Amino acid sequence: xxxxxxxxxxxxxxxxxxxxxxxxxxxxxxxxxxxxxxxxxxxxxxxxxxxxxxxxxxxxxxxxxxxxxxxxxxxxxxxxxxxxxxxxxxxxxxxxxxxxxxxxxxxxxxxxxxxxxxxxxxxxxxxxxxxxxxxxxxxxxxxxxxxxxxxxxxxxxxxxxxxxxxxxxxxxxxxxxxxxxxxxxxxxxxxxxxxxxxxxxxxxxxxxxxxxxxxxxxxxxxxxxxxxxxxxxxxxxxxxxxxxxxxxxxxxxxxxxxxxxxxxxxxxxxxxxxxxxxxxxxxxxxxxxxxxxxxxxxxxxxxxxxxxxxxxxxxxxxxxxxxxxxxxxxxxxxxxxxxxxxxxxxxxxxxxxxxxxxxxxxxxxxxxxxxxxxxxxxxxxxxxxxxxxxxxxxxxxxxxxxxxxxxxxxxxxxxxxxxxxxxxxxxxxxxxxxxxxxxxxxxxxxxxxxxxxxxxxxxxxxxxxxxxxxxxxxxxxxxxxxxxxxxxxxxx
Length: 492
Ligand code: NAD
Fold this sequence. Notes:
With 492 residues, the protein is an alpha/beta fold. It is built from 17 helices and 23 strands. A 7-stranded mixed sheet has the order 15-16-17-14-13-19-20, with helices on both faces. A 6-stranded mixed sheet has the order 10-9-8-11-12-22, sandwiched between helices. It has a 3-stranded mixed sheet with strand order 1-5-4, with no helix packed on it. Strand 19 (414-418), helix 15 and strand 20 (436-439) form a beta-alpha-beta unit. The radius of gyration is 24 Å and the shape is globular. The structure holds nicotinamide-adenine-dinucleotide. Nicotinamide-adenine-dinucleotide (NAD) is lined by residues 149-154, 176, 178-179, 208-209, 212-213, 227-229, 232, 235, 250-253, 284, 385, 387, 413, 452, 454, 458.
């Protein structure tokens, strides 16, 4: 039997074992096989990486932006060459289907492509003669050392909402992947190593909560990005901000979709079930509650139930599989518990996916798609992020009631409307309190050239990841007022 790989950190251009660290097993959630062991880096390892990154910063920021992005062009080529292997790795450690993993890696590559525009995106502003002989301009300079703290559900994509922008803007970076899905970043860093970044510019520190807290407290780290659950996002935002860092923290979600009776039945059913059950519901943009308006309930409930029952569940590397397992046995039993609590609160289990056993993968953390109808407002299924393949259904009479219900929740990551009516869609777009809106779209994931938004308890901060928001976040503005009186110019 081959020995299980112990993952390493990458600091100062060198792969290193973490002396004395506790190691966690990383499991394939479909097979329960141990894929690797990940170190939980202690604070001393964060200190080493932060000092290395701070030491590499002065030279890296002096590399002209057009030269810095040459490393990104190289990285893009390397990601393309290794696209299949990276996608398979995502499936093996996260459980999502290979198609979903490819979609994830494609979005990672798109962010590298957009960040190649940094020489233009980082340009400043100039005003001549703000007073006689006086000019004023704004230039953007990198912030320093940035740390990126990542969740388990998109191990390949989410670091790329930030990484290429931070580097191209002239910052040095520490990436802290989820300890549950650290293998993809281990492979990405082998490519970053070949892409030509000088030693210390980009660093990988594996670990868990103690590692995160050491990042939040480290004085050499100036900027922190976080993506994960709301309680931890709140903690990260408060602690990093109290330490004087700039911080953005994306949190959890509870995404409602409203369905009008005039929505196209086949298209809506397919899109809503892909949103609710794709990635086994472990997406921050997963449909979580469908709010049917008027007669829509009678039309869509049977169609959605049929789609849920017929979804093919299995190992994501196998062809034809449409939904994989959830991340861990603990996650599976938490989801089962929420479904049971929802049932006890009076909701009806229309499709019960709690007991899924997949032949050949009996040790996997499988559930099947579940639909719970008649969910009471304020109940557990209406308010809690399930993060599993569970779609709750609520009924209302009017668009106004639906919008009120959408806006009564704590979260504001995504809200979607399905309709053939432009007026209803416009009203929804205008009034729904959510950062990402879908109109006849079930996973309203912004392209890399838009910010990845999120409002209310789904986001703490002001600037988001991706595109110009990332450039604003990873640069600080310097304003220069300059006097060259005209009489001095007469000499020349
Ligand atoms: P998580 O909050 O458990 O973990 C995220 C990161 O925080 C990990 O790196 C982990 O090591 C660290 N961490 C965990 N507990 C900590 C603690 N107590 N103190 C300090 N650090 C801690 O999230 P997860 O389960 O990995 O990811 C799923 C969550 O992420 C869901 O809530 C999902 O909605 C959310 N998410 C949000 C977005 C978004 O854009 N809003 C995108 C993806 C995922």
